[in-house]
Protein 1
Amino acid sequence: MTPRKSFRGPGSGWSPPTYTVADDLKVTGGYVPQGVNNWGRWGPDDQLGTLNFIGDEQVRYATTLPKRGKVISLALPIEESAPRHPSRAPAKHYVTVSGTDAVSDNPIWLTDFVYTDDGFDMATHGTTHWDALAHVIIDHTMYNGFWAGATSGSGAEVLAIGNHSATFAGRGVLLDIARHQGVPWLEPTTILTPDLLDAVAEAQGLELRSGDIVLLRTGAMKRWWTLENAEQRLDWFSASPGPGLACVDWYHRNEVAASAADNFSFEAIPGESPETKMFPVHQPLIVDLGMPIGELWVLDELAEACEQDQSWEFLLIAPPLNLPRALGSPLNPIVLK
């Protein structure tokens, strides 16, 4: 494909791209990562990214970890009281056939089988979720060199979350940073560093393995439930503790398959360079490394269970919904200990 013609109008500030896009939707002459990256590591057409680190060996090992038979959900309730970024519409749950229809003898059934039914409408990033690799773009380019134009109003032709519907099952590890620091929650502007993450792992006696799904507990979710009014809850979205830019190398070095946190942004907000770049950690993690990110996870019950067991590793089963063209997915992550 040749570069698009310019339809620049007065004051539009738009210039035509200098790159080209091939029939396989790969960009030539455009953005190329300058730092650590996984482009081409698993082939030019790869759409799994760092989830490739989870192989048969990693899954088999993870299935040996449950000892107590305890099951823990890491998902928020999808209801009005739960945190949801203001930019995303609230979920709408509606009942199409109810029990009151039955008791009022509403003639909607064709047989003597009486049932109830309902529907749901929500933002894919409006609760506990994974970001798809098509979620973040740098200079018109997505992970592994795919063109941003492959994501349109009908969804993503490549890098959609549906590619991951049979993944996210393996060894999960919890880095309980709030516990390590001796606080119920970190200050909202705390920037996590590789040295701190390593110190937490060492203190917990935890050795990271290739293919781990790393969960970060900052205490931000615990803090949410203490907020008393709408103004405080809105302010919760203005700052968040999380990884800084230096952690990109840490994730790459440890061959982490995916990572999630108990905050709204995963990374530190406002971060190191709020004046020049928004979500600067999202960009290299998702676009350069091809690493899925999870946000709004509930980790407090898991933290208590890990402390009781003195073991911060577990079997984690957290696949997204099978949404073939979606840019993210809500989910109910399950831990078995």
Protein 2
Amino acid sequence: MSKNKINRRDFIQQSATVIGAGVVGGISRRAGAVDALDHRNERTDKMKYRKLGRTNFMTSQLIFGCGAALIGGKAVRLLDRAFEAGINYYDVGSNDYYKGAEQHLAAFAKRHHGDIWITSKGYARSSEEHAMGDDVSVAYAKSAAKYWLNLVDGSLKDLQSGYIDAYLIQGFNEPSLLRSEEMIRAFEKVKTDGTVGHVGVSTHQNAQAVVEEAIASGICDLVMVAVTPAGWYDWKKRQMLAGTPSLRELKPVLDKARAAGIGLIGMKAGRLIAPVTSAGKGDDSAFNAFYDQRLLKAPLTPHQRSYAFVVEHGLDAVNADMQNFKHFEENLHAVRTAHTYFA
């Protein structure tokens, strides 16, 4: 093997060494002395928590989606309320897409340094032509990895931090990129540099293939996926992915991912039933066929039902874009009580 070459096994072994040290990038992971888990801002009287795969982070089951919510500083006022409610995971995105969101999160992140988990994400764009579904070329992978690494640097600057708990490839739909030496090396670089603790992908398209490749590759700590009670959601087309199994039917692949140590985060859980003005279809009953009578009779709104269902069917947590107090309180109630609706 050449000096600069790294394979998946080497990457996984090096990652384990970095994470096992307990301190990454100079920041304590707050691993418990007894259970070796990463506990932050846990308020068990207000929120439920789950271990997020091999990160060992105990995530709140409701994640505050800061991307669209913080563009222009719209929902900054909600951040402290979320913290008080026991939310310890804040997901944002690079300035490449979510203009100014990281900058608006920076002050809150500094104030609660060490007590919250921050994930950001950026596209792995390439200047090379490529047909979706084909294996990526070396030139494509090299360009994509370079673009992503530049966004990591930009995010560190905008968050005014030397470390981000996790950084994902945003809008990921090319599974073969995870097999490329160039992307593996990029993931390895940010971890060994101590600027990023964990890596993974965020996907709105080609979800089944992406999740299966994340499992096979062994290099993804997290997968954030667009999913609803009806199954995989295609954000680009604003509809369910053609031929998708229902979320119940996706249990085998989700179980396999979790067994591989991957933390699973659901997003866009209720987007399909949102009003047309919010990029949805406006059909509140779209998921009813997937619910039992107990959930249908529960005192929940259609959106609350979708969040409760997703968080109790194979996902560790659900990421929600919350831009006002009403939506926040509704989502909070749905996730807090979700376990009571399923035997």
Protein 3
Amino acid sequence: MNKWTRWLPLVAVLSLVVLISPVVGCAPSKPTAAPAPAPAPAPQPTPSAPPTAAPPVAQGTADLVVKDLWHQQGQLFYKVANLGTAASQGGKAVLHVDGVQKSDDYVEPIAAGQEVTAVFQRWSFPGYEEKDPPKASDIGAQRLTLTAKVCIDTENTTKESNETNNCLEKVMGQPFVYNFILYATTAEWMSGNDKIQWYLSPTNEKGAAFPSNYKLEDGQFYHGALAMYPPHKSNGTIQGTFGQPYSDNPYTPAAIQEIKIPELAKFTAKVGFREDAKTDGVTVSFGYVEPNRNLVWLKTMKVNYDGKLDNFEVDLSSLAGQKALFILKVEAGASWQDDWLTWVNPRISQ
């Protein structure tokens, strides 16, 4: 055996080791990495149900109204109420006297359902003093009066449920009064087309006008009522024309002249029949005669016997400043029997 033969087994072993060992300088192969697990999603908060909304609270609306105005020691006071369901804002009040703005004032906020009294500090009645009540002898004459008008929230600072009741107008002083009963003696009386005298007998066939103290159909007595009975014929009429009496001298009968109609004037009366009247009803009318003698009827109403008196009213504010004579008229129906019509407290007043 030569020297190479004995080394063969060792060479074979080394060769096998070389084949199995990695080559020097080469990085060993890395094992394939397992895929990284996907990150778990961040937990989200569970949405909670929205809170139940509270029912809306009713806000309400204010409603300002001037309830009254009056004078005291030359100053004008006024009362304001809030009739609404919410408080008002502070606002401006304005005073007009005979149509001319005279003063203003600040009205504090007013709670719902409350009222306040205020006064126009920067204006007073010049030389004004309250007089005694008018006497019967001077009823019908013009007096010391003025018309005051108070308006509140004039700049609309408060939203209101009713914007039409923010003003109040009132006659201050001694209002004008024209009493038809007191001036019936000087009125011009007509039965149809014929002139008749004042205070004819209730049974006069031409008709009659006189102060009545009879009990009326409502069972009451009325002092100084004015009776106007039409003539004894179908559809007969009786009427009186009223004005302001005057005379050029004390030796001539008094004549009548037009009445100057004041502001805020109205005609008021009640009408009905004498108790136990067997009437088929009458028609009553109220009107005026213009200076050009044109006749204007303002209201006509049928009156029946029903055990009560009827109200008869006419607004004369549209005639303010004009002059006129006034007429009361009663017209019978088909029958004139017991047409005992009576005017209770007929007057023009403010």
Protein 4
Amino acid sequence: MDSLSIDADIKKARTLTSDFYTDPAWFDLSKEKIFARSWQFLCHLDEVADLKPVMLLPEMLGEPLLLSRDNDSFRCLSNVCTHRGKILVEEPGRAKLIRCGYHGRRFSLDGCFLSMPEFEGVEEFPSEADDLRLIPFAEWLGFGFAALEPAAPFGDFADDVMSVIGEIQTEGLKLTSTREYEVDAHWALYCENYLEGFHIPYVHHSLNAIVDYGSYTTETFRYSVLQTGLSAAREEIAARYLFVFPNLMFNFYPWGISVNVVRPVSPAKTIVEFLTYVRDESLIESSAGPTFMGLKWKTKRSWRVFKRESDRGSIRTGDIRRHASKERTIFIG
């Protein structure tokens, strides 16, 4: 494995070597070094009645989690029984407590152990080890997030960019569709494509007609990148595209929010999940949202070519500055 090093000076910076995208060792290392330490999307919190099971990045981390709601207080717990490891809750629903279907162990909604049949007289029982593990959890814009071993508080990932965006209208958001697409490419390659708007006039002609590329702006922060596109007449903001490291995308439109979760499967395969949260259906057809979501797939051929040439050794590294991609420098650096 080659070492990874990105020059902070964009005039000198070069892209990662192709090994990062093709070597299974780098892919496996990213589980521990990147995804276990970053904040991952769970759901909109209106979807939680009392209990909602969530599998955190099924193909990469595969961690069973449980969102618990007690009035307006939310917690994220391990969804694994502390007795024999059975999954506790398999379907979302209403409940006053959590009960294991294997041996009847019970927990309160905050994860604390309550009781266990036929364990009377057992010494040093119960202990803290019998409580469900509490997972670091954060709320933002009405959405829930979790991190197994966070490298930094969630505020470090979101607060700075929100000071630029300002208030986002989130009242009335409803999940109207969930779609998944398989991409024959490394997860980071998909993210890099999202992060640079340089290709829009050349690849996405219909989107370019809606968004004025000449006024397109990109702002970088410690853990996020914000792209803003004005309407073709430059009269209003057509869309804001927010990337939160390492794999979350929040696309803000007049009608609502499209959330994209990039889920790594292997060095050569990625699943991208599209969750559409609509606030005002009447604004959908006239916005950039549907166009942008559909046109993302025009770049699939480019990803396949990159993978093929990387496997052959034709591509090793590239010069970032020629692509006007300071946002990619933030991502890979």
